[in-house]
Amino acid sequence: MSKDIFRIIPMGGVGEIGSNFTLVETENHRVYLDYGILFPYDDFFDINYLIVDLAEIKEDKEATLFITHGHEDHIGAVAHFIEKFPKTQIIAPEFAANLIRLKLEPKKLPCKIKVYDESDHFTYDQIELHPLHVTHSIPDTYGVILKDTSLDQSVLFISDFKFDLNPSFEKPFDTQKVKDLFTTAQKRICLLDSTNILNENKTASESDLLADFEYIFSKNKRTFITLFSSNIYRVKNIFELAKKHKKKITTIGRSVNRYLQAAQDSDLINLADYPVKDFDAVDNYQDSNLICVVTGSQGEHLGALRRILNGDQKNIHIDEDDLFVFSSKPIPGNEKKIYQLYNRIAELNAEMITNRDLLIHASGHPGQEDLKQLIDVAKPTHYIPIHGETYFLRKHIEFINKYYPHVQTLYLENFQGLDFSTLQEKFIGIGQKEPLLIHGDGHVIEREKISERRKMACNGVVMISINQKEQKVEITHAGLPILADQQNLKLKDHVHYLAFNELKKRDYDYKQEQIRIKVRNFYKALLGYKPQTYVHLL
Ligand SMILES: [Zn+2]
Q: Across the chain, which distance is largest between two alpha carbons, in Å?
């Protein structure tokens, strides 16, 4: 029996939505599938994102970073990977490659990306990696088929897809390749997307949205359409309809322009084919024929949509003749911010259409019917749910057990993998590390510093400077009510007494700590809470 190494270990993206990062390991190679970011929860105080810690990653084998598609939860952390392992070969589909280049340009990071398409395949020892064209919510998305040539087994790994056989502007999901390279193997292991497992139906196709967009475009109203900017084929459908209905188009927001630039560079769209103008070049901003594609569908504080609704977008004044179209769905956690926008639109008496009114949004992930259609082609013997929070992974397992009881389900968590080196797979684990928090210009911020930020944000900050030579006390505080200002003199006297009478003879450290404790107690008695307090003895 073969002893060739073949292991798959998810290191991100399982038990969470984001930071997709999966290791495929053979005797001489490590292939990392994607290296994305995880968007932070609210209590991380405006950090940018989280990434998987690379500290434990060994460099004793040839390494390849294989990108499946250009979503941020798959490419968002690539710069960190290159900084740590500058010699890694990066292989990516063209659109993702162009998005990565745009990301790395300002950092001046050297980066050679080999672009692949569905005609390529790569060999790592006994494993052949075949990119599989799949349909999703961003162009140029791939799954992978890992064909083990030493054992009669194949792995189908698709973290993001929907089973769309009638997509717009691209080929349908490539079922033929699944049949040829996967279904033919004796042992067939599927690792598939859990994002939309709670949906019992089939996910709508991008092309299903056209009819309701036709209806929207038949209205003679200036229209603001907000959507995920990376969904280039939806933007392209909107541009096509705008052209057909003799509308004018402009775009507002950095990310929509960045994705369109990368799409143009990747030959996915030719902007010259459409009546689209830069926002600054629009002749008549009040034109009822104007279609504005805008960012900010998730209620982002810096998003264009919020800016427009707050009256902060130059040349745009909203009134009751305007129409707002949300071609999107709230990502869990963003509902409050989005409802603020809905309320603002209502206050302005403008018309609003969301995905609850018309079929104007389609998910990029498989409902149960999509999974069934793929499983019926792939005929797996083993099945591992990926790309989802724990609850979704469990539901995915229940779904497989219910409809495909003969398929062996395996449950994995991050840093827990499977060894397929023999026909009897084995569970393996590797050292788990907490994700790193990234803020500002790509810098790590330690968890205890976030805890400090939390205390400052919740209870305010007080700084006490004591000049021992001149016997002077200065108090500065931030984030405390005016009531605290009014008590400043009293506190000053109290600190003065402590520093120059009661604790006069005590050593520096003792004095500093006692004053800190007493100042905190002073505020506790005054306000009911203790601010973060810093004491400097000069
Ligand atoms: Zn995706």
A: 88
Instruction: For residues 84 and 161, state if they share a domain.
Output: yes
Residue 160 lies in a domain: yes
ipTM of the complex: 0.99
Q: How far is the CA of 69 from the centre of ligand 1 (A)?
A: 7
Are 143 and 129 part of one and the same domain? Answer: yes
Q: Is 484 in a helix, a strand, or coil?
A: helix
Domain that holds residue 284: 206-353
Question: Is 451 a member of any domain?
Answer: no
Domain membership of residue 358 (yes or no) is no
CA of 51 to the centre of ligand 1 (A): 16
pLDDT in tens, 442-462: 899 998 998 899 999 899 999
Residues 149 and 44 in one domain: yes
Bridge pairing between strands 443-445 and 436-439: antiparallel
pLDDT digits (tens, 9 = 90+) for 154-181: 999 999 999 999 999 999 999 999 999 9
Q: State how far the Cα of 173 lies from the Cα of 193, in Å rounded to an integer.
A: 15
Take residue 121 and report the two structure tokens written for it: 């395949």
Number of Cβ within 10 Å of residue 345's Cβ equals 20
Q: How far is the CA of 209 from the centre of ligand 1 (A)?
A: 19
Q: For residue 390, report the distance from its CA to the centre of ligand 1, in Å.
A: 18
Instruction: Answer yes or no: are the C-beta atoms of 495 and 466 closer than 8 Å.
Output: yes
Do residue 150 and residue 263 come from a single domain? no
Q: Is 8 helix (H, G, I), strand (E, B) or coil?
A: strand
What are the pLDDT digits (tens) for 208-255?
999 999 999 999 999 999 999 999 999 999 999 999 999 999 999 999
Q: Token pair for residue 308? A: 């427009």
Distance in Å, CA 73 to ligand 1 centroid: 7
| Residues 463, 475 contacting (CB under 8 angstroms) | yes
234 and 326 inside one domain: yes
Cα separation values, 381 from 50, 405, 532, Å? 35, 10, 58
Task: Kindly give the distance from the C-alpha atom of residue 129 to the centroid of ligand 1, in angstroms, as a whole number.
Answer: 20
Do residues 410 and 418 lie in contact, with contact meaning Cβ atoms separated by under 8 Å? Answer: yes
Count of structural domains, the chain: 3
CATH of residue 483? 3.10.20.580
Consecutive H or E run containing 133: strand 127-134
Amino acid, res. 137: S
DSSP code string of 337-404: HHHHHHHHHHHTT-EEE-TTTSS----SS--HHHHHHHHHHH--SEEEEESEEHHHHHHHHHHHHHH-
